[in-house]
Amino acid sequence: MPDAQSKRLCVGLVNQTNKGGTMNLEEIEILMLTKMCENELGGWTLEWDNSKTHLGLTYTRSHRIVLSKQLIKFDKTTVNDVCCHELAHAITGEGHTASWRVKCLLLGGNGRAEEIAPDSFFKWTGMCKSGHIIHRHRLHEGTRGGSCASCHKGFSREHMFNWVMNF
Ligand SMILES: [Zn+2]
Ligand SMILES: [Zn+2]
Questions:
Q1: Which of 50, 89, 135, 147 could, after both became Cys, cross-link 159 (CB 3.0–4.6 A)?
Q2: Domains along the chain?
Q3: What is the Å distance from ligand 1's center to 157 Cα?
Q4: With contact defined as beta carbons under 8 Å apart, do 99 and 92 qualify?
Q5: What is the distance in A from the centroid of ligand 2 to the CA of 131?
Q6: How many A from CA of 123 to the centre of ligand 2?
């Protein structure tokens, strides 16, 4: 059973460009494990997944940090930001609180809490007329014809998304 309540979904990468990475998996792992040691997170485990929807996850209850292999596509600054973002969750045991942010900045991260992936990560970005944004890897008929749930519960023609293909 995943401990859903203590799971923190984190990306924190708005406006970061995906230029093609500068670090390989081994380098990222060494960077993260070093930071974990420095911050006395020796009892924690570092795992990898291949997620395209999050670059980092912290499971505070089971003491696990999961990084996405997709990180190799990003530049060094972004990799460092993701590592610091997750470390700050692990150290504080908190969500995106003020003390989390302070810790994140102290660690050398950007302190950003936005939980949305960069546009370049997803093929499709949809925006409703109020500016709510959603991202999709694929655009099914149902998604294309869907409307914004933040604006209106149930379908509303007025709040349909306008879709832009990112690549
Ligand atoms: Zn977070
Ligand atoms: Zn909306």
A1: 147
A2: 4-106 (3.30.2010.10), 122-165 (no CATH)
A3: 34
A4: yes
A5: 6
A6: 20
